[in-house]
Design goal:
alpha+beta, 2 domains, three-stranded antiparallel beta sheet, 3 strands, 36% helix, flat
Length: 102
């Protein structure tokens, strides 16, 4: 059983030292290319609602078809401010979620 768990973790790169080193190198390359941006909220005290929102786009497989969920969350209250579901990941459905949130 322990061997099976170890094989699964290795398959997903959970704890192998080689995968960690390669991940760090890959991340460094992306930072140098400007594809990873700095975390701008570090040290920011989020003390009231509607101060910081987060948007997340997630792919969901439903009965063989992909659907896309855009969700806007408030970081202070963890409240779902707005959400939109669509069959295509195009700009209008994301803008609609933002418009509903405002």
């Amino acid at each position: 059983m322990d061997n099976l768990l170890t094989q699964k973790k290795l398959a997903f790169g959970c704890f192998s030292s080689e995968s960690r080193a390669s991940t760090e190198i890959r991340t460094l390359v992306l930072v140098l290319k400007g594809l990873i941006y700095p975390y701008l909220l570090r040290g920011l005290a989020i003390g009231y609602p509607n101060y910081v929102w987060d948007i997340d786009i997630t792919c969901i497989l439903l009965q063989g078809d992909w659907m896309y969920l855009a969700a806007i969350l408030d970081w202070f209250s963890h409240y779902l401010v707005s959400r939109e579901l669509d069959q295509t990941m195009e700009l209008p459905f994301v803008l609609n979620a933002v418009d509903c949130a405002l």
